[in-house]
Amino acid sequence: MNMLGNILSYQHFPIYAIMALFLGSFLIAAFGEKRSVRNILALLSVTAALGFILALMKPVVFHGEIISYWMGAREPAGGYAIGIALEVDALSFFFALLVAVAVFVSGVYSIQYMNRDDNEKEYYTLYLLLCGGVMGMVLSGDLFNMFIMVEILTFAAVALTAFRNTVRGAVEAAFKYLVVGCMGSTCILVGTAILYAQTHTLNLAQLAQLAPGDVNTATRLAFALLFVGFGTKAFIVPFHPLAADAHGAAPASVSVIISGVLTKSGIYGIIRICYFLFQSMGLGAMQFLLVFIGSLSMFVCVTMALAQHDFKRLLAFHSISQIGYVLTAVGLCTALGVSAGLYHAINHTLFKGLLFLAAGAVLHETGTTDLNKLGGLAKKMPHTTALFMVGAFSISGVPPFNGFASKWMIYQASYQKAVESGNIGFLLVTIIALITSVLTLASFVKVSHSVFFGQLPPELANVKEVSWGMRSAMGIFALLCIITGLFPNLVTAYLTEPAAAAVFNVKNYIEAMGFDGSAAVQLEAGGFQHAGVWDPVSWLLVLCIALLAITIVAVAGKYGNVSRCRAPAVENKYQLFYGGEEQEFSQLGGEDLFWGFKHNWRGYFKFMHRLHSGVVNDYALWAVVDLALVTLFSLIVL
Amino acid sequence: MFKRLIAERTGKSPWLFHINAGSCNGCDIELVSVLTPRYDAERLGFKLAGSPRHADIVVVTGPVTKQSLPRVLRAISQVPEPRCIVTMGSCPQSGNVFRGSYSIAGPLSKYVPVDVDVAGCAPKPEAIIDGLTLAAKILKEKRGRMN
Amino acid sequence: MILLNYIASFFLIGLGFYAIVTKYNLVKTVIGLSIADYGVNLLLISIGFNPGGTAPIFTWSELDYNSFFVDPVPQALTLTSIVIGACVTAMSLALVIKLEEQYGTIDTRKIRRLRG
Amino acid sequence: MTIVIDALQYLGYVLIFPGFLFCFLAGMLLCGIDRKLVAKMQKRVGPPILQPFYDFFKLCGKETIIPAAAERNTFMLSPLVGLAALVVIQLFIPVFGFTAFSGIGDIIVILYLLLVPALAMILGGAASGSPYAGVGLSREMVTIISCELPLVLVLLAVAKTVGGAIGTGLCFSLSQIAEYQEVNGSLITKISMLPAAAAMLLLIPGETGSHPFDAAEAETEICEGLLAEYSGAPLGVFKLSHAVKMLSLTSLFVALFLGGLGTGILALDAVLLFLLCALITAASISFVHAFTARLKIEQIFKYYWTVVSLLAAVSLALAWYGL
Prior knowledge:
The complex is a heterotetramer. Chain A is mostly helical. Helix content of chain A is 70%, strand content 2%. In chain A, helix 5 runs antiparallel to helix 12, helix 5 (90-113) runs antiparallel to helix 19 (468-486) and helix 8 packs antiparallel against helix 10 (217-234). By secondary structure, chain C is mainly α. Helix content of chain C is 66%, strand content 0%. In chain C, helix 1 (2-22) packs antiparallel against helix 2 (26-48) and helix 2 (26-48) packs antiparallel against helix 3. Chain D has one domain (2-320). Chain D contains 13 helices and 1 strand; from the N terminus they run αααβαααααααααα.
């Protein structure tokens, strides 16, 4: 009885969550020949992972506990951590929750989405392996274990990218991702090795205790290597072309994981290095590094997205652009900034997941994601359209959806930082963030016009709505988008603020593992103060009242004095107006929109197009140059 | 009350949609001159609309060639009720000098009920304004009949 | 002596990256990845090396405070790293085969359908 | 009991002042004044000032045709949503000392809410399926992008100026900006705010899509673009939205730069607000309309991102160094 109680103690839940996913993967590999068995196993394992993580909410968030778990009960001996540890503070929990939710919804979606592919068994094996890798990485308390998990998730992601190897460019994308991803992994391993040589430990808490006190050329190099290594996982500039390539070819349910979760693991890694291991975020130069790379990702990727005409590729670039927001906000190093960044991380997972699933639904039904070949699907897939619009509004920050709530906080945080530090550079960040937001809106207007509205191409006349399973998966994401948008106070109070507090309390993190944290740098977080006000629920209420009033007046005033075509043959009256000509198919392709904008920036777009050459050597060169620059930077300033 | 408001105002803001059915451009220029400062038809609420969906009055100029006939009819059918059709110049009424030509399908009244004919080649701006105000009155009556 | 190891390992990593960046042959890219991997392995082993230390294999009774042995942790890491390196090579070669099937070439400059 | 009274009061705000009824009347009147002024400047008699009302009621009485290619729900609903969003914006903008709902939004919220009506129009147009709407949508979106940068700079400059003065560093709350002006006089009296005010004046025609920045609704080349397929009441609602948008932007100008002129009596303030709005409309919309021809879309973009943005940036720089 006592034994059972011990097994069910929440101390074990982190490892259970990881095990649930890996076990699911192995069991499917072994016994997944039958579809029903496979589906049940997959659903069971993602549900179990979600359940275990949710059960951790009470101790970690409400009681502020930091769970430390030594594998095989090998506690530190002689002041050195020997065993492998898991450590779950509010930050880890936060990311684990994101992983669990995204994995769950995407798993539900997969079941009907993948039903036309063969090799479903391999798909689920790899899928759960990928999920387990990400889960393991964010819960790990050990740097080398993080590396192992990064490798697992990179492999699984590469394999899944090439999964539909008949899709145009799938194998090519996988190869590019593999090459640059492995360079990144090599960087992480070398960085880990150097840190080990300096401190003789791999435990994160102990590293956090020892590393900042012992900064020398070697640890500076280690910092640069780790930063670039995790940068490749987050796909921040200059690694963004890999994300675009990978997303374009991978199945949508995998794109959700790659964009919503895998990039987050990179961000998590960067937070762990900068805030915990090196505790260097107090330095202005480090803030500059993060904010600079973040803003660059934000802006470059959104402009690249405007030039795309493939639905999923466009979404991929936006994904990195939003990651840029997260990185920028986290780099501000204020309580408001970190909280805003983490809030945006949640929202990014939710709306990006939703958008990728919608793209997958379109692909599933029409067989293409080329914006120039689609159009008018709103009449055929009304629910998908509505759900997509929720996602599009969220990512473009239209109030009251969730993207707005977090972006609003990011603007405030960056502007406040600018005013407080007197540094005009942060002001520029606010402006770039605002412009990026409107460009995001523009590009989603483009998508909604060229996929869901506009005219229906004749060859898509027989398209049907997707099955309920896929719709309900999208529905979960959409619902979460709306909830997190309407109740920002709840989200900040229960999710992001505890995580931000954990970021600013390195001492607790070290001491929870039984090490001496007295030397930890205490960062001045600043108060959590909004410079403005935003109350989405009241706003929505007022909007609804206004809308209701207008609707009543409109209905009373014969707004419904409508005549529309009922016969199958379209009379002249109900045809579109073409200057008198007969109606013909003339959908404006997605590529041709926003000419007025692109024309003024043609030099920039030409330059960017030449840079994103698609040759793997170029991308590898970028990685090397990035590594060299960051190394130089860290040698000078750290 | 709302209905009365609507019925009263219908005649006060007639928007025009102009269709050139093979005209020599004389009438077209005269129609534009009606909107210039000298005659200023906008004081009566007239406005040139860009799309037939917005229009109340369709102004047809030119002798309605065989090529343009289906297009004219299609554009007219796309104007929402109540609508008024005005032929401008002699061409759409009689064919004018083009009458009997192999390529002329006119007069327009063979195909759709025409409400107002403004004669002349080209009609004077005063005549055009007079014809249009008449059309606006007919429009108001039609609106009244719709209720 | 050990300094030479460090120099060699970083030289190997650099050589691997150099190969990846400059070689337009997919197989050479894969070789570059492997070379970088060997560099990392060498680095790991060198970190754990103690001059004069014995192999870290003891029975419980033999172990005391005077035992002097090389650090076993990096060796474990190296094993893992070697396994991962083998996986990288296997997987990338598999992808190269697929690429050759689909594109008919293994020249990276011609494998660029996804760009811009 | 008090809850009922409060609820009724707020309902009154939404429906009468400064909400729906006020927006309707004042917006339409502004539109009429604009048309009359343009006519006068071109030596025409011009339409009656009440002409927009006539147009609106006429459109309500017409048949509404839904094209067969259109997505019906979006097509019919988007005008209403756009109008409701505009009315809500008007509720946030302080009328001198008085704000109907001060605790809900700030200037960044306003910045985003201004996108909602435009977005509603874009989606409605896109849902109609017309290729003219496609072109119009593209141009409308580029116009929005063009206006965004200068508008952001103007709003940030105001936030910095007021925030610097009241000691919090920066201030996004509109009601605080209004309060500050009640005490210290209008912001336009500050040197740093002059370029910002000028930029804002140049922004108003672009945001409302009036001449010469109406490439998105060019009736002679793309058949009114987004509105090409709209007829009857929905079209009327869009015309009304356009009028209300004029009111919103001009009263935003008043709230940002001309605050502190209020008398404290709400009815008088409302009249004063309307007069000031009419003045600004005359200066920024009618005057420019009367003597310019329509710009091409890439010219609009270039103009806003260079001339107007520069003005606003100068203002921001001045505000940054505390002038």
